Amino acid sequence: MNTPNASPFSVTVDIVDERIARLTFSHPTRRNALSAELLHALDSRLVDLAAQRIPVVILGSGVGQDVWSAGHDLGELADDRDPIAYGKPLEQTLRRVRAYPGVVIAMVSGSAWGGAVDLAMSCDLVIADESARFAMTPANIGLPYTTSGLLRFFNNLPIHVLKEMFFSAQPLDAARAERFGVINRLVDSDKLEATALEMARGIASKAPLAIQAVKEQLRILEDLQPMPVQAMEQIAELRRQACESADFSEGLAAFSERRPPKFSGK
């Protein structure tokens, strides 16, 4: 699961019963960062669970931690200037979650950052405790987010809240996240796992093919966003410029050196 010099991580599956699985990821030395290897492991486990026809999956990194996931492992950006592009491990895993032929419930305890927020929002339901925070931080390092990623937020948040998250990179706390519908159930930490299992059991008792059909219809409807070719090309060029900019290099260097970045707009 790990290369010889990589920080240790784990992605484990616990079959609660024949209709419910717990899928838990852990990367303790990196604040549960979503490294490429961890994402590949998540993707692989979801493929296996789909093959076993498990109707409900509870996805999380544990309860009582300060950080649910720090998002994409920024240490990998030295070799990849656009880690969220189509076909990259993060985007592939997000598509796998959204296309999973059953219900995926995100169980969130602690803060979620960057790509980890996208992971939670790609799930069908979100159960969280009061420690949950959701921060979209690409602007801190100069990384432009993808259109597909923005659409996931566009479909789930009021436009001014979306802009606030992406422009300021400030966390959306659990109370506001519940108010705007990001969180389905907000509970005390000691009730988080029980609540997630209760909801999972309720869903698992329903007709799985009917739920699968509704989920796929909703996924198609959410993705039904026609865009002119000219607009796609314009967005692609804006993203290319940002990914190749000196600001992006400065953002990565500042993060590595634990100092405030000095952006120049170039």
Please outline what is shown here.
The protein is of the alpha/beta class. Helix content is 45%, strand content 17%. It has 11 helices and 10 strands.
Question: How far apart, in Å, are the first and last alpha carbons?
Answer: 39 Å
Q: Mean pLDDT, nearest integer?
A: 90
CATH topology: 2-enoyl-CoA Hydratase, Chain A, domain 1
Task: Estimate percent helicity.
Answer: 40-55%
CATH class placement:
Alpha Beta
Major β-sheet strand ordering: 1-2-3-5-7-10
Pfam family, one: ECH_1
Family: Belongs to the enoyl-CoA hydratase/isomerase family.
InterPro entries: ClpP/crotonase-like_dom_sf (IPR029045), Enoyl-CoA_hyd/isom_CS (IPR018376), Enoyl-CoA_hydra/iso (IPR001753), Enoyl-CoA_hydra_C (IPR014748)
GO molecular function: lyase activity
Structure description:
One of its GO terms (molecular function) is lyase activity. Keywords: Lyase. It is an enzyme of class 4 (lyase). The protein is α/β, with parallel strands linked by helices. The strands form two sheets. Strands 1-2-3-5-7-10 form a six-stranded mixed β-sheet, with helices on both faces. A four-stranded mixed β-sheet has the order 4-6-8-9. The protein has helices at residues 36-51, 89-99, 115-122, 138-141, 147-154, 159-168, 174-179, 192-204, 208-223, 229-243, 246-257, and strands at residues 10-17, 20-26, 56-60, 67-69, 103-108, 111-113, 125-129, 133-135, 172-173, 185-187. A hairpin with a 2-residue loop joins strand 1 (10-17) and strand 2 (20-26). The protein has one domain: 2-enoyl-CoA Hydratase, Chain A, domain 1 (Alpha-Beta Complex), CATH 3.90.226. The protein is globular and about 55 Å long. 45% of the residues lie in helices and 17% in strands.
